[in-house]
Amino acid sequence: MRTFFIGLLVWVAVGLSGCGYNTFQRDDEQIKASWSEVINQYQRRADLVPNLVSIVKGEAQFEQGTLTQVIEARSRATAIQATPELVNDPEAFQKFQAAQGQLSGALSRLLVVSENYPSLKANQAFRDLQAQLEGTENRITVARNRYIKAVQEYNVAVRSFPSNLTAMVFAYKPKANFTVDNEKEISKPPIVNFDAAPAAARGAASGAAK
């Protein structure tokens, strides 16, 4: 009887391995690790915002509407609890992504507008924060790409035969992922150049004035 049970356990172990069970465990752990890095980078960016806002507030004539957008966008982004369970809730994940996207847009606008204020451009603390934000945006892109890849591999296993049978037995479902406008660009972090946009805008304005 003991030999029978040992043989049964071996058979079950081999069966689970062959039907993708171990693959699901490995991919799930990779998703958790990738998600933690995404959250760490987003949190790092959020932590930089208060100092940035504090410096910008010192510019008396700075556009308050732009500053308010950054403050409100950060508030919305940090209000969402980015727990590991979030990746299993497509609706909550979409809200999280939208909130982070709004903060990215608000920060970009603030940094573009700041080019119109020489005193800010000359402020070393402001320039240091700008450089840190640029680096953080690049790290966010890298972290997101790793998460996208990890989820893609997991979701393929959930939908593919015969591992989809294991997914049904253990209730493994596809996980939410970031949407990517250009799939060819997901592995290439963007080059953030905050000087280019205002320079182009000034050139266009100069041309219009002539």
Describe the model.
- The protein starts with a helix and ends with a helix.
- The chain has one domain: Up-down Bundle (de novo design (two linked rop proteins)), CATH 1.20.1440.
- It has 210 residues and is mainly alpha-helical.
- α2 runs antiparallel to α6 and α3 runs antiparallel to α4.
- 74% of the residues lie in helices and 0% in strands.
- The protein contains eight helices and no strands.
- 21% of the residues are buried.
- It is elongated, with a radius of gyration of 24 Å.
Question: Which CATH first-tier class would you pick?
Answer: Mainly Alpha
Structure summary, number of beta strands: 0
**CATH level-four homologous superfamily name:** LemA-like domain
CATH architecture: Up-down Bundle
Amino-to-carboxy terminus distance: 95 Å
Helix fraction? over 70%
Class inferred from helices and paired strands: mainly alpha
Would you give the CATH topology?
A: de novo design (two linked rop proteins)
Quaternary status of these chains? single chain
| SSE succession | HHHHHHHH
The helix count comes to 8
Return Rg in Å. 24 Å
Biggest pleated-sheet summary: none
Strand content: under 5%
What is the 3D shape? elongated
